[in-house]
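Lab notebook, design round three. We kept the backbone fixed and only want residue identities now. Task for the bench partner: fill in a sequence for the structure below.
Input structure tokens:
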């Protein structure tokens, strides 16, 4: 009898273990389009430390502002009929993918490059921005291009594609990583690193905050941005793609671009805006291979 009860006990434990293993699946289901509509709000992950993109003013303000924040609000408007039916959570380059995988957020808009590796981990939306990696240095710096970083120090965000790229392009550079860009920017201002590297879209926002900094080196990569959604959540992916397409067609995207980037979209923007994630990711991989 004791042996039988023991077997039953083990069976119960195994069953509990199996049910626990289904938790991520439950989290994923909770982020489906149907669940979001039933819930009545959509959960978005955005950066809180990138001025003009996703930024929470440390001096006040309860919600972030920026280009990607406004795009997220537009997605809420087109999915749920109201741009206010959205909640924001801060994400970092290092945790945005796990957060959407775990169901902590429904999607993220967080200066994320579409790459083949990421497409194996999560779904990504069609391309909504075309960036390129560049360098920010002091105005009196001798660094003029990424090759000049050999033997010098450069900082970027932990878990970002710029981190991987700069380590590959300049193996002898001393690459320092931070959880967020403000710490990297501070290190550059204080002279603790020779350069800051990430996408030009982010660097421009920091260049505008200081008189003694400049962008150099041009864009030495192609970085197509896409929203991140849990793997297999095709209903939400389609809804976001539909919203992005509508924003491009009705002038909303161009207006938000002008508002936050402070210039009109580039002349060729309609040639890359809305590029499917798999195609954009392959284009990124092709240009990365060319740099080897």
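Proposed sequence:
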């Amino acid at each position: 009898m004791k042996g039988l009860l023991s077997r039953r006990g083990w069976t119960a434990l195994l069953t509990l273990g199996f049910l626990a293993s289904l938790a991520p699946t439950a989290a994923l289901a909770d982020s489906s389009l149907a669940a979001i509509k039933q819930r009545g709000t959509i959960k978005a992950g955005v950066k809180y430390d990138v001025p003009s993109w996703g930024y929470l003013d440390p001096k006040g303000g309860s919600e972030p502002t920026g280009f990607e924040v406004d795009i997220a609000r537009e997605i809420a408007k087109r999915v749920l009929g109201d741009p206010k039916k959205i909640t924001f959570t801060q994400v970092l380059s290092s945790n945005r993918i796990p957060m959407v995988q775990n169901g902590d957020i429904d999607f993220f808009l967080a200066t994320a490059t579409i790459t083949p590796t990421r497409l194996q981990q999560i779904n990504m939306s069609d391309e909504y921005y075309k960036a390129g990696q560049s360098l920010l240095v002091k105005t009196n710096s001798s660094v003029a291009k990424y090759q000049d970083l050999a033997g010098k120090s450069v900082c970027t965000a932990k878990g970002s594609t710029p981190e991987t790229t700069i380590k590959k392009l300049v193996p002898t550079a001393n690459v320092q990583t931070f959880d967020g860009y403000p710490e990297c920017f501070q290190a550059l201002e204080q002279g603790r690193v020779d350069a800051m590297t990430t996408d030009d879209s982010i660097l421009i926002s920091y260049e505008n905050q200081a008189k003694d900094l400049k962008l150099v080196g041009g864009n030495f990569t192609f970085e197509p941005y896409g929203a991140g959604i849990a793997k297999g959540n095709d209903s939400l992916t389609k809804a976001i793609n539909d919203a992005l397409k509508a924003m491009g067609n009705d002038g909303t995207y161009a207006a938000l671009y002008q508002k936050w980037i402070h210039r009109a979209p580039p002349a060729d923007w309609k040639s890359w805006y809305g590029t499917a994630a798999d195609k954009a990711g392959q284009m990124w991989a092709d240009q990365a291979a060319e740099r080897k």
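Keep this in mind before ordering anything: The chain has two domains: 25-130+224-264+275-290, 133-216.
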